[in-house]
Known about the structure:
Blueprint: E1 3-6, H1 9-12, H2 17-26, E2 35-39, E3 57-59, H3 65-68, E4 82-86, E5 97-103, H4 107-111, H5 115-130, E6 133-136, H6 139-148, E7 157-159, H7 174-178, E8 188-192, H8 202-211, E9 216-220, H9 226-234, E10 241-245, H10 249-257, E11 262-264, H11 273-280, E12 285-288, H12 293-297, E13 302-304, H13 309-320, H14 322-337, H15 341-355
Parallel strand pairs: 1-2, 1-4, 2-3, 4-5, 5-6, 6-7, 8-9, 9-10, 11-12, 12-13
Amino acid sequence: MAIVFDNIIFSLQQAGGGSRFWSKIIEPWLDREDCLFVERNDSKKNIYRRNLRIQRTTADHHSPRLFGRYLNFHRSFLGSPFLFHSSYYRVNCAAGCRNVTTVHDLIYEKFSSGLGAALHKRQKTAALHASDWIVCVSEHTKKDLFGYYPFCQEKPVTVIPNGVEGFEQVGFDETFFASLGVHQPGSYFLYVGHRGSCKGFDRVYDVLDELQGQLKCLVVGAPFTPEEKSRIEERGQTAGFIQAGRVTDEQLNYLYSNARFFFFPSLYEGFGIPPLEAMQAGCPVLASNSSSIPEVVGNAGVLFDPSDRHELRTALMRVMDAGISRQLSILGVERAAAYNWKRVIDGYAGVYSKLLDF
């Protein structure tokens, strides 16, 4: 099965969900003689790429990354027919090539503007037109895809949800938590990731108001901006936050396992990996009912309308209830078990086989 994998995502980010996903997708194919990997010299700055032992690589475009990331290919890498799967919206237009494109979300289309967004949408449009098969990570993303790019309804489109691994219920590591100023399990709720406008971080302030000092919010991610610090001070919530900064997966596992609950108020997700990670670690999930999140969380978490403060209050009371919390922990572990990477990898192998008539 002749396949060329385009590793451009490893040059676009040092870490992140996109490169983590891609490392899992290509892992079974690394030592195959009939597989080739296109990448730039700077790919190993990515933490996931450094852990991969790839047997056969070929050079990407020699253009600077700023321009090269947008350039497609017209190269017969392998004997015809062969398949080209890019990690970020590039295609190969050579004769005998079949193109696969994965769509993770439509966040640029929904929330972004300016030159960067315009370039992204132009590149995505071209890639989707040239694709012989499209994979979406959720049914909601598929629905959005058809809404913004209706011509895709005439193409083969498969939904293959993402996977999760590496998290489990672990105990309270006193040394690690002491470094954060946390002295007992269940004394905080957890927020992980970006805090842009579509992530709904403002709801964290509402939760702290409702809890009236019962719990602190432990935040994993970039340091607070001056604007965020000012807002927190204005609301009198300075003492309500603990900043963990960026952490390793092992440390994140401790944080999930010992949190009272994981809070995911995002207004839009193409899939939503963090709630799955939390559930796998046995952490109760309180999440918004928007976009793909209900599809992922199901009945294993408490969902709320992020535009309704009263509904948030009611949902918060439920997740804080000890009996409900224990049940959510059990349901979450069970649900996360269905989202394994083997199922994802097998799904892509099925797509590849269909395109190459195996």
